[in-house]
Each structure stands twice: as structure tokens, then as C-alpha cells.
Request: fold
Amino acid sequence: MNTGSAIRAESVGKTYRSGGTDIHVFDNLSLEVRRGERLAIIGESGSGKSTLLHLLGGLDRPSHGRIFFDDRDIVALSDRALADFRNQQLGFVWQNPSLLPEFTAFENVMMPLLVRGVGREEASHTAAVLLREVRLQTRQHHRAGELSGGEQQRVAVARALAGSPRVLLADEPTGSLDFRTGDMVIGLLADLHEMHGLTSVFVTHNLSFATRCDRILELRNGCLEAPSVMDLAAGVVVQDATRLGGGTYV
Reply:
């Protein structure tokens, strides 16, 4: 793994205005993600994990601070330049796959490429290759609405990789899946990370997923810090026991 910096956030803060009150999600937060790294960000609900991912992905702008991809400060980009940067450099996976249910898996992966101006033959080839990589070649001509939740998420992963991104950002990619399906998607993301030479940042409540990444940071009280080994081990045991018992986890 090339250990140069792929993403660097410097003294980033985010404040929202709600009901006449300023809500500070975090202030003076800094982060460095190494090139080729798989980083997991964990933390309690409401701690700001998704907000941070949106800032790193250029989907929102910080109230202050700078965010660099290599040496490019994306906070300084115009809205148009930032949109171009997202389309060219980043891939996103969300908890909800948000596929177009009336279109096939193949069409859902191919369509963003056509919108970007890629020729139909090239887009078709790329979609076929990616669906094979996520092990859906036998389901590629089924409509998205006919696919299981795990299959839909695999289509969403293929769609995220269609533009050959350098960085993959994923917000709870296994959050709506059962244990077995989620574990399969975790393994698939690990394989694709290596196959495509990605830098990946995962926001997750799934501690089994987090412990399979290269590094874990916990967002707590507006700060990122490495969680203790004992806390992680205890959390994994509780989550696995809850799942095996048929319950849910947070």
C-alpha cells in the first residue's frame, strides 16, 4: 500500500442553524487517509459520521477548514468544478441502494456512464465487467425491483465503480442487510478495494466490518480517535450475539 496521503482534512468544522440555534456537529476536526487504505469510521448515532462523509465527498461544504485530495483543496472549488471532481474521482455507496426499480441491473450500472457521455458500446462493456465482478452476471437482466436487498446493494457497488473512481466512500453499506448477506458484501468490498486500487472510507455501525479494515477511528464528542481494543472486542461480541439471536443492532 502506497502510504502517501489521499485525503486530508484540516481543522474542519460544521455548524447547522436550527430553530434560531447553532448546532455544532464538530469543530477543528482533522483527518488523514492514506492512499490505498481502508478506513472505518464508527461512532454513536448522531455523532456526525454521515456529515463527515458528506464533507469528504464534496456533497456539503464545511463551515470552516480545508479538505484536500492529494494537494487539491476541494473546499476552494466552484460548485461546477466540485461536481466534476465528484463525478471523476469519487464513488459513493449508501445504505439504501436507490436503484431505478423499472430498469434492469445492467441498465442501472450503464446509465450513469451514458449520462457522462460514454459511448454505448464502452458503457455496455464496463457494466458487464462490473456486474461479473460483483457476481451478478446471471441476474444482470433482471429488473432492480426483482432483486433481493443484497443483490441490489451489489448493483449499487458496481454503479459506484462505473466511473473508475480513485476513492470509494460508503455510508452504512451493510446497514440494511442481514448478517449473512452483509458479511458477503463486506468480503466483496474488500476484494474490489484491492482489484481497483481504491482508497476506501466506510462509515459503519458494524464492528465486525470495521475490524476487517486497515484502521478504525471513532467519532466521539466532535473528535476522531482510535477506539480501545477492549471496547472493540466487547462490541463485536455483543453485536454478533444480538444478530445470531435474531435481534437488531445499532
Q: What stands out?
A: The radius of gyration is 18 Å.
